[in-house]
Amino acid sequence: MYTTVNEDGVLNNYATEPKMYYAEYPAIWEQRKYVIQAVFASLIVTTLILLGFSVS
């Protein structure tokens, strides 16, 4: 941790910055997993909206 002291004696603590890295493009199996998650999320949202309309 990096610490500085100003002229009034106040300590300022700074966290160490993590090493930066670039994200990699998702593999084909990861892309398929995201599509499946999107389908299920869409079904849940659609079901909730239709349920809300039917109740009201």
Walk me through what this model shows.
This is Ssl1498 family light-harvesting-like protein. The protein is of the alpha+beta class and 56 residues long. The protein has a domain at 23-56. Helices cover 50% and strands 14% of the residues. It has one helix at 28-55; strands at 2-5, 11-14. It has a two-stranded antiparallel sheet.
How do you describe this structure in short?
The chain is an alpha+beta fold.
Key descriptive features of the protein:
single chain; 56 residues; alpha+beta; 2 strands
Spell out the helices and strands N to C.
Answer: EEH
Shape: elongated
Question: What oligomeric state is this?
Answer: single chain
- Estimated radius of gyration: 25 Å
Helix content, binned percent:
40-55%
Question: Helix- and strand-based class?
Answer: alpha+beta
Compile the SSE list and pairings.
Elements: E1 2-5, E2 11-14, H1 28-55
Antiparallel strand pairs: 1-2
